Amino acid sequence: MATDPRRDALRALADTGLRLARGTTTARLALAGLRDVVDPATLSPEFRGRAVEQMERAHAEATQELSFDEVEKALSDAWGEPSGEVLDELDPEPVARTPAAQVHRGVHEGADVAVKVLRPGLPDQVRSDLNLLETLIRPLGAVFPSMAAGLLLREVRERVLDELDLEHVASTQRAFARALRRHEQLHVPAPVSSLCHERVLVSAWIDGTPVGELTDPGQRAAAARALVLFHVGSARFGTVHADPHPADAVRMADGRFAFLDFGATRQMSATRVDEGLIALDAFLAQDAETLGASLELLGWLPAEVGATTLVLGQDILAGRLDGPSRMDASALVETGKRAAAHAEALWPLAQVTSVPPEDLWPLRMLVGLATLLARLDVEEDWPALYGQAAQDGW
Fold first, then answer.
1. Which of 44, 135, 294, 338 has the most neighbouring CB atoms within 10 Å?
2. Which segments constitute the ABC1 atypical kinase-like domain (predicted)?
3. What is the residue range of 49's domain?
4. Is 330 found in the same domain as 197?
5. Whether residues 197 and 216 fall in one domain
């Protein structure tokens, strides 16, 4: 019986990915992180229960509470003196536990602060795991022969290690805080620079309601608009924030929305944003020739497949491109079904697709943003909203 090279390539890629997932801290952390991001309603019924169970288990294991002794040791190692000599107060009970860190509320020089401590040993574990990414180069190349798999995996390595360097994260957060300090809708708490370290990040405390917990329809709609403005507009700012999360965006009492975590970021040029906008405009205008030329300029696809890309994209996203549409779990499911129905036509495009490494984290942002917006169940003219945020920024 003849084998299907396409199926064999996909199976080899999946098998390699599963082997890595079973044996690495990094993969388990990624699975744990999905628990708060993925809406179970968007998963296929046949494996929804198992997927939710695995995510819950991974999250519980990855977010086990650090003892207060461990937290104080991490702080004293970072600051060179006991935390009691630096902070006025430090609540021994954590206010948040994530797969990567634990957060406590404290007081510094009379002001409330959030004290984030990286989990001990995590950077070394992840760094060791990332050395295994090279095993994905060959199976990725078999499925996507036009992609520079080695360069893409190097990009993943560099960005993930940036996320685990809290001093680097603090410097990025400081830039966002300064840029948005007078914004009427958006806010970023300023880090306390003197207390930030590779394993510790201290920033101004923010009170508010996480967008994932908002129930008022008007507030949810405002949150959706703020999320698009912040995340898509961050590309125009020059540093894209690539990890939309329902717990890291909060509505403050004054109606502004504050953004709390700046681990997943990447610099992005205004030229790149403009090139993407040209492609978006051509797609919405159903201009196949301009779309093809734009995709080739971006380095994603050859110009000659512009017409095919346009037809497939318009059908997969039917009902989402012309005026207001509701973004919810059913919308994501429907889009996924339409894409699956075009699997045969999409496969030839996959063979000539190339994602430049600098676009990997911006694409992560767009996928994560759509997932988060679906949880808010809001109706908007999404293409217009995205386009305006990318064009004008903040």
1. 294
2. 64-290
3. 5-63+123-160
4. no
5. no
